Amino acid sequence: MGRRYICEYCDRSFVDELSARQKHLRSIQHIRKKQAYYSSIRDLKTLVEEESKKETCGRFQRTGECTFGEICVHSHYSPFELETFRRQLAEKEKSTCDVKTIANNLPSVEDWLAKVKKQTGTDPKTTDGLDSFYSPEASNPFLPVSLQKPPLEIFSSVSLTDWG
Ligand SMILES: [Zn+2]
Ligand SMILES: [Zn+2]
């Protein structure tokens, strides 16, 4: 049996062939493990910023090994990996941003109660107010048109066609 390449990030080993090693280093699973390993040391954003400034370490890219290891002045991340990180960062930032925007635009319950009170003249906090507010007979201005009770006149103007 030949030499085995041990990936310290993934905690697995495989036959040390250049193609197998390159394939592994580009696998999503490996990139995730490597990222998880580093995010416990420094955060992803710093990592991407720092690594983007460096030139890619040709030796590491070719062989998956570099004698300088962590102190190498070149980046041991491939442009592909950095691009993956950048995309993940952008997605993370976008999703937290979306949540914030939605949260900021949501009216508070107090606002809503005040609005109902103003528009219907009833206080939804009291049972009376609630009854008339949710009564199916009352046309409810807060429901979308499709959920409101249609006025009966609509049906008199509808001409019915037989289907089929
Ligand atoms: Zn790995
Ligand atoms: Zn290197």
UniProtKB/TrEMBL annotation:
ZnF C3H1-type span: 51-79
Keywords, ordered alphabetically: Metal-binding, Zinc, Zinc-finger
Molecular function terms, GO-annotated: zinc ion binding
Annotated Gene Ontology cellular component terms: U12-type spliceosomal complex
InterPro entries from the UniProt entry: U1-CZ_Znf_C2H2, Znf_C2H2_sf, Znf_CCCH
Domain C3H1-type positions: 51-79
Protein name, as recorded: C3H1-type domain-containing protein
